[in-house]
Design goal:
By secondary structure, the chain is an alpha/beta fold. Helices cover 51% and strands 14% of the residues. Nicotinamide-adenine-dinucleotide binds at residues 6-12, 29-32, 35, 62-64, 68, 71-72, 93-94, 119-120, 122-123, 229-230, 234, 238.
């Protein structure tokens, strides 16, 4: 299978590597060059331009936000300028469900199929080929997408028509952000008492309070390692998508709203480029307490 892959960042680079390792013929493109060279060294073809990526059977995009996906596809000399009828575009980025719908319609006009397939599992999930992938699209196209995405997935589900994957991802991002905020508050408490914090985290992970967030982000928060990972700026984008979806569905989400404001406070303080685990700093700032490393 000839596969085009656009967006070789924190997530896209390891995902594209899995495709190469699985024996696919992979053509990669990224705005900056070094990650393209890295992929080329593993056997991928580094494309000179987007039109070259369109000369493939399946194109996967892993870009920051809706305007980026729209630009690479529909720019005058973008991917869509060379895509052939019957090709499939799979967008693994997290974008708005509405944008996914519009992209699907535009591609359908050129007889190109589309699946929105946002992922969860973070950088570790991408590197280990263990992402959870939520897919929106028609049955047949999703089945085609599944064959390809399986090389970096631990779990995949077809959750409805185009845009549905993004709606599930919005719910995912509410759950992750709210969980991070509470882990930040709980760890901030524990660090300022006489308890043995690592022992406390261990026992918490043995009970109902256990979560992937506590396991993956807790140790990094305690060590104050805020290297992204998942940037607060990107999580803010996702929370705005989630809040808009909730508004449209008529659902009040006070916890997600408050968490969004905490993330915004971090961005306003210049920390938007840090990992979302840095939310522990927002707790410290609100409390007027100095940072604490365990
Ligand atoms: P990133 O910023 O690390 O990577 C994005 C890549 O896209 C960069 O390499 C950038 O150079 C490239 N790019 C941007 N615009 C481009 C363009 N017009 N043409 C070509 N290349 C372009 O972002 P990421 O962390 O890999 O996230 C990508 C998407 O996946 C986002 O939508 C994010 O919300 C989502 N996501 C991220 C994580 C995570 O943990 N990082 C987890 C799940 C989902």
């Amino acid at each position: 299978m000839k596969i085009g892959f656009i967006g070789l960042g924190v997530m896209g680079k390891p995902m594209a590597k899995h495709l190469v390792e699985a024996g696919h013929d992979v053509v990669v493109y990224n705005r900056s060059r070094p990650s393209m060279d890295e992929l080329a060294a593993t056997g991928a073809v580094a494309a000179d331009n987007l039109a070259q990526v369109g000369q493939t059977d399946i194109v996967i995009t892993m870009l920051p936000d809706s305007p980026d996906v729209e630009a690479v596809l529909f720019h005058e000399e973008g991917v869509a300028s060379t895509l052939q009828p019957g090709a499939v575009v799979i967008d693994c980025s997290t974008i708005s469900p509405q944008a996914a719908g519009v992209i699907g319609e535009q591609l359908a006009a050129a007889q190109v199929d589309f699946v929105d397939a946002p992922v969860s599992g973070g950088e570790a999930g991408a590197v280990n080929g263990a992402l959870a992938i939520m897919m929106g699209g028609d049955e047949e196209t999703v089945a085609r997408a599944q064959d390809v995405l399986g090389v970096f997935a631990a779990a995949m589900a077809h959750v409805g028509p185009i845009g549905s994957g993004q709606l599930v991802k919005a719910a995912n991002q509410m759950l992750v952000a709210g969980n991070i905020a509470l882990v930040a508050e709980a760890l901030s408490l524990l660090q300022r008492t006489d308890v043995d914090v690592p022992a406390a985290v261990d026992v918490l992970n043995g009970g109902l309070a256990s979560s992937q967030v506590l396991k993956a982000k807790g140790p990094k928060m305690l060590a104050r390692d805020f290297t992204p990972g998942f940037r607060l700026d990107l999580h803010y984008k996702d929370l705005l998508i989630a809040l808009a979806a909730c508004e449209q569905a008529g659902v009040a989400v006070p916890i997600a709203g408050m968490t969004t404001q905490l993330v915004q406070a971090m961005r306003a303080a210049g920390d938007g480029g840090q990992d979302h685990g840095a939310l522990i700093k927002a707790v410290e700032r609100l409390s007027g307490i100095p940072p604490h490393k365990t």
